[in-house]
Specification:
CATH class of the largest domain: Alpha Beta
Number of strands: 9
Shape: elongated
Number of helices: 10
């Protein structure tokens, strides 16, 4: 049987075996209890992950892909989770187990998958896989870059991010209109922020909603005291701040409330 790529699921099936092998190799040193492949589709990446059995699980929402996977990967049939990854409660499904996530992530939900990882960061010490190049670059961007933003800061607050390699459109069926990028994320040994995490998220998101403004103006909703507004950090724009500076800024705001 053949599986037709579905636009509404953001499916572009990788056809290059060597690229699939290179992506799988990113987890070769993993010490996680489980490997969770997201959106395996026709299993091009899956076959290079079978070395991780019996701790390999697949999450797939497409019924046609599920049927194909069950027919071609008999040993994995019982470990295919037929659900939407964005609706899964990973802590309930895999209690007290560490999870490495991997996949050729569907472009239409790839950013949401990263936020899902951040939600369950205490369970997920490692993530690898392929994104639209623009998203991959945004995750790994450094302060001062035009693409440095909310996704960059929130991911890098908890993970070391590495852009591994670029993948051209012609190795997919159907070919996407853009290049893809493969990244590897490893959680920091100490991934506590040292400040209020909910406030940190709010500060980062609020600051970048008006990224062309200085923090003094973009953070007006926090009703800063006149004393605090005099700090030089408030003369900067959000893309100029490192993760550590955002942490320090959050601590300042915490003490100002």
């Amino acid at each position: 049987m053949t599986v037709k790529a579905k636009k509404h699921l953001g499916q572009h099936f990788l056809t290059d075996q060597s690229i699939a092998q290179n992506i799988a190799n990113l987890l070769k040193s993993t010490t996680s209890d489980l490997i969770l492949e997201i959106g395996p589709g026709t299993g091009v990446l899956t076959k290079y992950l079978t070395a991780f059995e019996p701790k390999l699980y697949l999450v797939e929402i497409d019924p046609e892909s599920i049927e194909y996977l069950k027919a071609h990967h008999l040993g994995l049939a019982e470990r295919i989770i037929e659900r939407d990854i964005l609706k899964l409660d990973l802590a309930a499904l895999f209690p007290k187990q560490s999870i490495s996530m991997i996949g050729n992530y569907p472009y239409n939900i790839s950013t949401q998958i990263v936020f899902k990882m951040l939600e369950y960061k205490s369970l997920i010490p490692e993530m690898a896989g392929m994104f639209q190049k623009e998203v991959a670059e945004r995750i790994c961007a450094q302060p001062g870059s035009k693409v440095y933003g909310i996704l960059s800061v929130l991911t890098q607050a908890f993970y070391h991010c590495s852009y591994e390699f670029t993948v051209p459109p012609h190795v997919f069926n159907p070919p996407p209109r853009v290049e893809s990028g493969v990244i590897h994320l490893k959680r920091k040994e100490d991934f506590t922020l040292g400040c209020n995490e909910a406030l940190f998220f709010k500060v980062v998101k609020t600051a970048f909603q008006q990224r062309r403004k200085t923090l003094r103006n973009s953070l007006k909703t926090f009703e800063l005291s006149d004393n605090l507004k005099e700090g030089s950090i408030f003369d900067k724009r959000p893309e100029q701040l490192s993760v550590q500076e955002f942490t320090s800024l959050t601590t300042l705001l915490q003490g100002d409330t």
